[in-house]
Amino acid sequence: MTRQPYPPARRDDVVDDLHGVLVPDPYRWLEDPDDPATKEWLAAQETLFAAETGALPGRERFRARVAELLRSGTVGAPVWRGERHMFMRRTPGQEHAVLYTVDPDGAERALLDPMALDPTGLTTLDAWQPDKEGRLLAYQVSVGGDEESSLYLMDIATGTRIEGPIDRCRYSPVAWLPGGEAFYYVRRLPATEVPEGEEQYHRRVYLHRVGTSTEDDVMIFGHGMEKTNYYGVSVSRDGRWLQISASRGTAPRNDLWIADLEASSPESPELVVVQEGVDAQTALHFGRDGLLYVFTDRDAPRSRVCVTDPATPQAEHWRDLIPQDPEAVLSDFAILDDLDRPVMLVGWTRHAISEISVHDLRTGERLGAVPTPGLGTIGGIAERPEGGYEAWFGYTDNTTPPTIQRYDARTGETTLWAASPGAVEVPDVTTEQVVYRSADGTEVHMLVISPPGAQGPRPTILYGYGGFGISMTPGYSASILAWVEAGGVYAIAQLRGGGEQGEDWHRAGMLAHKQNVFDDLHAAAEHLIASGVTAPDRLAVSGGSNGGLLVGAALTQRPDLYAAVVCSAPLLDMIRYELFGLGATWNVEYGTAADPEEFAWLSSYSPYHHVKEGVSYPATLFTVFQSDTRVHPLHAWKMCAALQHAQAADRPILLRNEAETGHGARAVSKTVELAADQLAFLARHTGLVL
């Protein structure tokens, strides 16, 4: 394939002096999407992308196979309100999952179908929360991928919308008071009341009474606090206890308060500090037995469950119920109390593989384990709000589409409650968990998924994330299965910065320790090569968002290790990232360029600033989304221009710029098209013969 010439991109003499260090930024003009020069450059990149990828071998095969594997559909766990339950399900051929309700008489009906709201497929259902009686539903939708959720209320019995939209409700929890007459929620201040450029911040907690104007909503919390704070809010089932949490951006710590709503009014709750200024994450569950259950990583980086009286919620009164495990990370719990001996079900991940144990609710004594379908991922444990003996949990693994399992604590049996509705033929794959050592000797785990009996070296995609305490766990992926079925290998490294080994593992890959994440990835690549799984000319690396930063660092730090790169919705200019999207909420993870020491961390690896002329870089595909309000596509635009200018090899640097999509949820057809382009590109440049 003869490579097309790159679109011209001027290099301006823009240099910042930061803490005495000169920082060039020749493509700053690409930060403005409305600049005619930017528009012209993007149009030329679109033409180049089409010319380079339009005839890629295997593109149609990948498109068809990914679409077929996605026809499995999905199913979500039930949310119970008395004898009514609600759940999400996507059937074969549907673009989005639909919210269903099953009424007390057993009749099932669709309650919210995003395609019925908007036949273009651009509207997504972002969140939903029924009231405590199951009569009203609060739900949030956004359009075109911008994630700017608007909040509405619906009468569940009739499906009639009764209120909304309430705007500025992105990432808002909804906490109903009993009776469905009022709820707490989180809303940003109007743009007219905040400094220019800070419209995405300045959240507050409000009380809204159904049937009244939002102009009458009472501000409960948040005034005068950190602008990047996120707030959580919940109300106990009996309506007595209010819980409010505050986290600065995505920091792995929170402040926490409770209020007794019997002793103070919902409009003016008297908040009592549970923890403040403590470097730990804590959440509370008000039990039906009147006790307060505390989920925390305070003094327990793998987390523990404690118990106390709600009247004395502070840490000095906590009693360990489920202590920290030295190897597994505690992820979830549920209480089943309609039994002679009430129990707590406790979810764990052990090297990213899920398990559930059963414990005496009073003493914490381990009584046994919940049978699970295999070595995979459990997606939360749900119980009935009024108690009972049943629990439901999601389950998936590399070859199993999402299922919902039901556990009966009376019999100790787990049964299939609901399967994904589509019947698909899933290819046979072999999954192996391997352990390798990083540059400093740290042991890192990696899942390697390959065709049965595969002999290397084979075209291989190495995937990682390594940030924000997010764990890479097994799950059904149409893209992975299509790649492996075609003869490739797919490896998922559980890098530092994630949550696979608890909060210490996360912190070993953030702030001043971010280079550990990149070292872990380089070591994963070297292990795959040394063990004969692949070779440098057959190895690709892929990642998105924070994982886009990861692969940006990979291609600039070790271009020799990789033949190809897919970099999706990435952070790449780590000097100016705080100025765009939600960047200012992430300086607790990365650091800020405003501080000299933290600037040194960022500048040591910022991919955009480490592109060097005359280097042979891997074939690179940037995939970005025009409506992304989390990570602005300018990161990829600037990096693409820099790499196109610097590239010494005859390997393409391409940009796929998609309109009317964002960072998160999207229609299935858009997912298929993106996967087909990415997989075909990686196949072409790793030698996967199709």
Shape field: globular
Q: How many helical stretches?
A: 11
Strand content: 25-35%
Label the structural class.
alpha+beta
Q: State the total count of DSSP E strands.
A: 39
Distance between the termini: 16 Å
Percent range for helical residues?
Answer: 10-25%
Strand count, sense and barrel status of the largest sheet are: 8 strands, mixed
Question: How big is the Rg?
Answer: 25 Å
Strand order of the largest sheet: 32-33-35-34-36-37-38-39
- Low-confidence residue ranges: none
Q: Average pLDDT value? A: 97
Oligomer description: single chain
Domain Peptidase S9 prolyl oligopeptidase catalytic: 479-687
Catalytic activity: Hydrolysis of Pro-|-Xaa >> Ala-|-Xaa in oligopeptides
GO cellular component, one term: cytosol
Family: Belongs to the peptidase S9A family.
Brief account:
With 690 residues, the protein is of the alpha+beta class. It contains eleven helices and 39 strands.
How would you portray this structure in words?
The protein has 690 residues and is α+β, with helices and mostly antiparallel strands. It has eleven helices and 39 strands. It has an eight-stranded mixed β-sheet, with helices on both faces. Strands 3, 4, 5, 6 and 7 form a five-stranded antiparallel β-sheet that branches. A four-stranded antiparallel β-sheet has the order 8-9-10-11. β26 and β27 form a beta hairpin. α2 packs across α4 and α6 packs across α7. 51% of the residues are buried. It holds the Pfam family Peptidase_S9_N. It comes from Planobispora rosea. It catalyses: Hydrolysis of Pro-|-Xaa >> Ala-|-Xaa in oligopeptides. One of its GO terms (molecular function) is oligopeptidase activity.
